[in-house]
Amino acid sequence: MRMHKPGPPLRVAVLDLYDGEPNQGMRALRALLEDADGRFHGQAVTYAIYDVRAKAELPDLGYDVYLSSGGPGSPFDGEGTTWEHRYWRWLDALYNHNERHAGSHLATDAKHVLFICHSYQMMCRFFEVARVTKRRSESFGIFPVHKTDAGRDDPQFAPLSDPFYAADFRHFQAVEPDAERIGELGGAVLALEKPRPRIRLERATMALRLSPEILGVQFHPEADPEGMRHHFAQPKRMQHVVRKHGEPKYWRIMRRLVDPDFLAQTHDAFLPLFLRRAVEAQRPEVIDARAA
């Protein structure tokens, strides 16, 4: 049993962009957050879920950490809708809040944000840091992700091999990163998709940092091997994948789900480190030097 240190818990808001569609992402995020309670320097962790696309629910700025999920369909599906308007307004308020607190004695009040897959594409649209386009074909599987020079120096990616493997399921991509705009924000591209030398197409961005607190990733760091293996083993799901992507692709995914050199490293390291770093930035007084 983990012991909690005194003081307010780390409050996490999960922005659910799945639009009511059954999915593995939210299950995995809940499991990771429940496991995080008391895990990092004894800090209690609580969370609340906001149904963004189906109910236009958005959190206020009273949370410490925000995790914005993946989701189905196009990142342009929400244009003109109430939920997208509220999502942009939340994102603008959050960014302005962090700008007011950056580099001052109030830096511990800065909000830590992770954008995942669909949300990553939304982030790129809002900040105009890359062009979001539809892929020629769907990316579906567990693939290598390659760090850039900036990614190799970024502490969030330090525990991961280069390349590391991640779950990647998407019809859209963020390409042509605007180096000038990213530089204005103080950010950097941290990772790219695998090279495809026989295909004359630009490699999509897979991770982009906008500030010490704001990070977006195209892949699914929450994806867990056991949960995904159970999901893909369902007869209807197996038939769907084989019909759409072929039997070799299906069995390649299943092999990689049981091989510890593939997905397990990313699942076990990435989001726990993101939450640990948030605790250490926002609650320096709770850090136990022996556990750091």
Any overview of this molecule?
The chain has 292 residues and is an alpha/beta fold. The protein has 10 helices and 9 strands. The protein has helices spanning 25-36, 52-55, 82-101, 118-127, 149-153, 179-185, 225-233, 235-245, 247-258, 263-282; strands at 10-16, 45-51, 65-68, 112-116, 131-147, 164-175, 188-193, 205-209, 214-217. Strands 2-1-3-4-9-8-7-5-6 form a 9-stranded mixed β-sheet, sandwiched between helices. Helix 8 (235-245) packs across helix 9 (247-258). The mean pLDDT is 92.
- Overall shape: it is globular
Give the DSSP E fraction (strand runs of 2 or more residues). Answer: 15-25%
- Mean of all residue-level pLDDT scores: 92
Largest sheet: 9 strands, mixed
Helix-and-strand structural type: alpha/beta
The first-to-last residue Cα distance is: 19 Å
User: Are there runs of 5+ residues with pLDDT below 50, and where?
Assistant: none
**DSSP summary: helix tally:** 10
Major beta sheet, strand line-up: 2-1-3-4-9-8-7-5-6
How many runs of DSSP E, i.e. beta strands?
9
Helix percent band: 25-40%
